[in-house]
Amino acid sequence: MKRVMVLLLLCGACSTRGTAQMAIPNDLPALIADPRHRREAVEAVVTRRRELVPLLLGWFTRPPVGVDPVRFREGLILTISEAKVSEAAPLLAENITWRPLPIPVGPVWDKPPSTIISAFPCIKALLLIGPQSVPSLLSAHARSTDPEVRLAAVFTLSQLRSPEAEAALKEILDYALTTARFAESGLRRVGKPRAP
Questions:
Q1: Distance between alpha carbon 191 and the CA centroid of its chain, in Å?
Q2: Which of 24, 57, 73, 117 sits at 20 to 30 Å (Cα–Cα) from 94?
Q3: Where are the domains of the chain?
Q4: CA distance linking residue 140 with residue 148, whole number of Å
Q5: What number of CA atoms fall less than 13 Å from residue 129's CA on the CB side?
Q6: 8 Å CB contact between 162 and 127
Q7: Residue 141, SS3 per DSSP
Q8: Hey, which residues does 24 pair with through a beta bridge?
């Protein structure tokens, strides 16, 4: 039996331009949260991108009532990535280390790339969005004081394999090498007695 989607009218009134508001699937949050029906959510987003993307971006920080927030967020990230919603790259990069489950025992970044990607839905989403996510990853790296966020941004850039990602990695490496030179120089001076 084919699934029948109930539609809820966002607004029965007309917009300021005189066109009626479009209806969204009433059960879209449930479709997003349920892996068995996520394909339907992705198809809705792809088909009605212009109307649904602002709603999805809002749900990223304020999930709808009536859904498990962790399952919904994971499903939302996967829906966004499969629909290639590049507008979500800044939000994904800001939340790059969010994960629904604890990572297996041991240092996170010593795991194989496939394990890291599967553990961090935002990393997977940014990789699926592709090179359009590079500016957001650079911004997350530059602005964050959290070492895990910075490592996650560099890891994600290293997995993109695009000219944009390569340029971003060179920029990050140049800065890191300069930082290392200053640190080495300072350490050499620390061990020397001061001149009177």
A1: 44
A2: 24
A3: 21-83, 88-196
A4: 11
A5: 29
A6: no
A7: helix
A8: 8
Tokens of 73: 């967020």
Decide: 49 and 90 in contact? Cβ < 8 Å. no
pLDDT per residue, tens digit, the chain (196 aa), is: 333 333 222 333 223 333 334 456 678 999 999 999 889 989 988 999 888 999 999 998 899 988 899 999 999 999 998 898 999 999 999 999 998 877 666 678 888 999 999 889 999 999 999 999 999 999 999 999 999 999 999 999 999 989 999 999 999 999 889 988 998 888 888 876 655 5
> Per this entry, what is the length of the chain?
196
Q: Is 151 exposed, middle or buried (0-12, 13-18, 19+ CB in 10 A)?
A: middle
Q: Give the whole-angstrom CA distance, residue 79 versus residue 85.
A: 9
What does R_g of the chain's alpha carbons equal in angstroms?
22
